[in-house]
Please model this.
Amino acid sequence: MNDPLLAISLVWLFVFIYAILGSVDFGAGFWSMFYTRKRDTQAGSIANRFLSPTWEVTNVFLVLLVVSLVGFFPAAIYTFGMALLIPGSLVLILLTIRSAFMVFHYSVQRFRDTLDLVSGVTGVLIPALLVSILPILAGGFIDPDTHMLQVGKLFTSPVTYAYLAFGLASELFLSATFLADYSREADDESTYQVFRKHAVRLGPFTLLTAVLTTLLMGQEAVWLREHLLDQRLWFILSSLCFFIGYLSLFWRPRDGNKARGIPRLAFTLFIAQYALASFAYGRAHLPYLVYPYLTVEGSITNPEMLRYLLISFMIGMAILVPGFYYFWRLFLKDKRYLHQQ
Amino acid sequence: MDELTIARSLFGSSLAFHIIFATLGVGLPFMILISEIIYQVTGDRDYTLMAKRWTKAQAILLGVAIPSGTIVGVQLSLLWPRFMEVVGEVIALPFQIELFAFFIEALFMSIYVYAADRLSPVSRIASVFLVALGGGASAVLITSANAWMNTPTGFETSDGQITNVQPMQAFFNPSFPSAALHVLVSAWMTGAFVIAGLAAWRLLRRKQGYREVRYHQKALMMSLAVGGIMSLATAWNGHAAGQVLYEYQPEKLAAAEGHFETQAYAPLALGGVVDLEKGELVGAIKIPWMLSFLADNRFDAVVKGLNDFPRENWPPFYVHTLFNLMVGIGTLLMILSLVSWIIKWRRRHREALPRWLLWILSSTGILSMLAIEFGWIFTCSGRQPWTVYHYQRTAESVTRATGLGLWFVLFISLYILLFIGTILVMRSYFKRHPLQDEWKQIQAHPTERRW
Ligand code: HDD
Ligand code: HEM
Ligand code: HEM
Model:
């Protein structure tokens, strides 16, 4: 693998990790809002229990994404900065409000409803804005003369809305599956049932929006749709993961007392589904970072810097992995945390 | 205002906002660590209680520190895209490594806050230590990037192209050692004085129990000790930072001193304002020979004046005032902590410090934070008109996008809102968790282990 390909693969990996973590995180915010209004279930508090310690870590992945883009592809920053000024600044404002309120909420239990509302609404808006970056990068929405984003065109194009529908459906689908698994880990079967129901309903819908997006894409980015068709094999594998995962939501677990479905298996397979599909999307997007202005090859940093960046990544990851493991044990595994009321 | 001015104001405000929370994110974990250790040594439960309460405060602050940091991080690329191109080529390393520091800080802060009751004392202290380490490391790393903007090294240019990049040389640029140390000790100093200020403020209240007075007294004297030592270190090492200016950024030193004529035996100027018409500093107290001595340890050192530099490269002159204020506050706080300890030592057998002193001490936190702000605005504005000293001008690095005014208004409103929100949440939290309740809880669980 040559240098630019290695670097873009790493960036792809960070995008993917953030997409999954972000879906679960923002989705949990949404579900928490949805269910604190209906006080009869534990669903809201389960979502909150997961959210409290994890959002900070999720946020660092967003920063990691920006920083690695600057480090690996400095020549791309000008175009990115110009095109993403508006969605980027909006995301920053919403993210700030959300994070601040999340912490305020934890410290002061008053104003619960307002705070839940904020975290829920931003939990939908932020992912929507982030997803809208995809059609921008695929071309057709950047003014060729000024390099500024054509906001009006972006938000009147049906393609954008197809992307948005797909992104939001995926967010809610993934977070519902994850929270189903999390509730089962906490031995809370009635909450499990609630989230499983959402996952079952949303699953086919995500597939539908994905097909719709591919169909509409041709309006602005014919090149991308053609490249995507070349990646058929990956998409078939991805759909296969989806179908098996979806079926596993109906299988009976070995422990006869539990309700239908094996959420751990389902969530793992859905991650594989999105990994395969987004990998294929990434491959289809090559050689462009931003169509037609920037290619991966043309934006890569100098080899000396690249070498140092890669070395620092390896050292950093070696130090961090035990930290992540410890964190996971304390908050996603430890029964004392999962079972608190 | 033109777009460049708006971009500068927007970015400067974002940083000025972030730095409040970031500095506390470095300073408070350090104080928490110290009080956890004092508890292990003395067995006095008041010190774990301090650690616990400051951690609560820090957890609230983190809710603003992290998103405001995310804002500056992303805004760098949005507002200064041409600058970030250069960063990516030459000085991407500290930004990259800083992320690992963020991860460590975020992971262990969550662990320390949300899992403290499930941790043994050793893992608890290890967690705060890692939080303090992560915060300190991120400050040092971001300072490496800023120091590089002041003294850029580690690359060459031919035909406007960057060549022969040496990432390590860029990282360890000439002003990095002094700047990194200065940022670190000044943050520790600020963390200590913020606590000292709050404790003094608490002690001014008339009606409170003996136990509370003792508690605040301990917090006050501990933080005055840490703050005193750190302000000494800050001043001593700030002197080293000044000598780096003398060698590498003579325009900045000249502007900081309002110094126009190149001369040996140059005087140090305190106060005064620059009169641009006359090209001199008016109304300043001048200490003969002192500037030459401070700049290079010799009275006959020649200090370059601004008249030797082209006028379009002159930094703005308010940096002279900022510099004076920073140094003045540092000196004042150093003296204040010494005086407080002497008075305390002489009144061993009586209760608290005298009220007049408490009144003064209650302002130290704000003063220290102001010194941080002045110091940063001094480095960034004193570098003008350059973004990367003698390589890239601020006007070249700015985005060509228009319509920044709207964002300026939005972001400023956001900062005001968050600032008020933070204060309200803090007050509400500590009002509803008074010290008495915490002592009752301690009595209910009297068996907490030490190591
Ligand atoms: C509590 C805060 C505080 C205090 C009391 C001081 N400083 Fe400071 N100073 C800072 C906080 C700070 C800072 C905010 O951390 C800066 C901004 C950039 C940097 O590297 O550190 C800074 C920058 C800074 C610079 C500029 C470096 C550059 O632009 O490259 C110099 C020359 C000094 N300081 C010198 C001093 C001296 C001689 C002090 C004597 C008491 C002093 N500082 C007290
Ligand atoms: C001297 C100046 C600065 C200091 C001492 C400082 C320190 C800190 C600290 C302690 C945090 C909290 C980290 C955490 O808990 O995860 C933080 C967050 C952050 N800072 Fe700063 N910072 C400074 C300036 C900057 C600048 C100029 C940038 C932009 C490049 C920046 C980017 C960030 C980012 C992106 C975060 C959020 C990280 C996260 O998501 O956790 N900081 N900073
Ligand atoms: C955290 C405390 C900081 C504060 C309060 C601060 C303040 C400011 C201010 C007021 C400006 C506008 C200067 C002017 O136009 O006169 C500015 C510019 C700038 N600062 Fe800083 N700064 C801080 C730290 C940093 C750090 C750590 C970096 C580097 C990573 C940095 C990078 C920049 C850049 C790129 C600009 C715009 C270009 C320029 O004006 O040179 N700043 N900052």
Summary: Residues 326 and 371 of chain B are 5 Å apart (CA to CA). Strands of chain B lie at 156-158, 161-163, 268-270, 273-275, 280-282, 285-287, 386-388, 392-393.
